[in-house]
């Protein structure tokens, strides 16, 4: 066993996690959480503190020897929903809950920072710890942290995310290429012309216009994405009309678009815009289209991801480390690739057999707290191997 295993502050980490879990803060409002993180980092000693933004915290640990710089990332924001887990440390804040596991990310990174601060004399390089705000809301917090310039010297970035429905304590990595999808979407108002249902010739029916668009959207993926490449277009909202004998004057729809290839992403966006424009022209309607590009795809670096997997096997055993396919989630962790190679790692939080069967973002989301130890071990060992 590595001698530093005994230095992992397991009980404190659980205490930190439960405190943050019980007192969640929404995106861009993580003031108390950031203050709590700074307090803990100061108590460890050896770690300098910087503030890239109002509600994010950067810890800097300089080893006794020169070398490369690695960044470990945890996000801190909660979701705007009511928790229904029934846990004794359930959220006490109305309509705010850590149902995505960011509380665990923060606690694990604090624990890793405490362990590594005690190993300063062994480190050949610098470790930076970014406690990031606002992952859940576009444009996200990662981009502003990258733009701050405080992490320009970083040579690699590792981000760890807990996922329910994966074996507790397992490390799961998509080694090379897109690990997540880009998640975009659009919001569309169609302006027609209202009329009585008995006089359709006097109106412009926005429902007909919208239905024609939706039919055309079905060709976008089949004809504008490369076969075999992940791409999804879902119209999730379509609203119009209030009575059976009235032709409405307006309709509204919204949709999500997920892609992994940037060229395909742009091509699909343009095709959607063309369909909206041309269909409205044909029927004489007008429109207001808000097409929003959100987080790009997370592109994992092969060498860094293999280092993480090797490190995890060293501290957890090969049976707890798996190569996994791309997931159709999205993450603003993707922006860190602008400064250095990145690796996005999934930590198993427990399956239904562990009482943890509810997915991330579910009001009854739960994880096995023992799994956090695997996360800390993987983070610390990855740092040690990277800085060798």
Automatic annotation (TrEMBL):
Domain Peptidase M20 dimerisation span(s) in chain numbering: 185-280
InterPro entries: Amidohydrolase (IPR017439), Bact_exopeptidase_dim_dom (IPR036264), Peptidase_M20 (IPR002933), Peptidase_M20_dimer (IPR011650)
Highest taxon, organism lineage: Bacteria
Pfam families assigned to the protein according to its UniProt record, in alphabetical order: M20_dimer, Peptidase_M20
Classification via NCBIfam families: amidohydrolases
Database matches in PANTHER family: METALLOPEPTIDASE, PUTATIVE (AFU_ORTHOLOGUE AFUA_6G09600)-RELATED, PEPTIDASE M20 FAMILY MEMBER
The protein's name in its UniProt record: Amidohydrolase
Protein species of origin: Hungatella hominis
């Amino acid at each position: 066993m590595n001698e530093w295993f005994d230095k992992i502050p397991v009980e404190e980490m659980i205490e930190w996690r439960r405190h943050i879990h019980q007192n969640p803060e929404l995106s861009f409002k993580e003031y108390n959480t950031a203050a709590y993180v700074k307090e803990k980092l100061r108590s460890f000693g050896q770690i300098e503190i910087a503030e890239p933004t109002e509600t994010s915290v950067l810890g800097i640990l300089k080893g006794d020897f020169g070398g490369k710089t690695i960044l470990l990332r945890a996000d801190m924001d909660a979701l705007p929903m009511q928790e229904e887990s029934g846990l004794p440390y359930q959220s006490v804040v109305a309509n705010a809950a850590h149902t995505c596991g960011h509380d665990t990310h923060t606690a694990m990174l604090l624990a890793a920072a405490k362990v590594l601060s005690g190993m300063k004399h062994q480190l050949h390089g610098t470790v930076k710890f970014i406690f990031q705000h606002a992952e859940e809301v576009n444009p996200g917090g990662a981009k502003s942290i990258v733009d701050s310039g405080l992490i320009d010297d970083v040579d690699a970035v590792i981000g760890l995310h807990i996922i329910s429905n994966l074996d507790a304590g397992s490390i799961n990595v998509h080694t090379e290429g897109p690990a997540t999808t880009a998640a975009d979407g659009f919001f569309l108002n169609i302006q027609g012309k209202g009329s009585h249902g008995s006089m359709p010739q006097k109106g412009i029916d926005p429902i007909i216009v919208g239905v024609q668009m939706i039919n055309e959207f079905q060709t976008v993926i089949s004809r504008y994405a490369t076969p075999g490449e992940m791409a999804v277009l879902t119209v999730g909202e379509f609203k119009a009309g209030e009575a059976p004998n009235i032709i409405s004057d307006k309709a509204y729809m919204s949709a999500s678009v997920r892609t992994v290839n940037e060229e395909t992403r742009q091509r699909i966006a343009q095709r959607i815009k063309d369909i909206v424009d041309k269909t409205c022209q044909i029927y004489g309607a007008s429109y207001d289209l808000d097409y929003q590009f959100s987080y790009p795809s997370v592109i994992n670096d092969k060498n860094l991801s293999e280092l993480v997997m090797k490190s995890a096997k060293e501290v957890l055993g090969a049976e707890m480390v798996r190569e996994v396919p791309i997931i159709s989630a999205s993450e603003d962790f993707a922006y860190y690739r602008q400064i250095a190679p990145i690796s996005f790692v999934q930590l198993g939080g427990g399956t239904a057999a562990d009482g943890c069967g509810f997915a991330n973002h579910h009001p009854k989301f739960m994880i096995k707290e023992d799994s956090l130890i695997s996360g800390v071990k993987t983070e610390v060992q990855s740092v040690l191997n990277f800085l060798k």
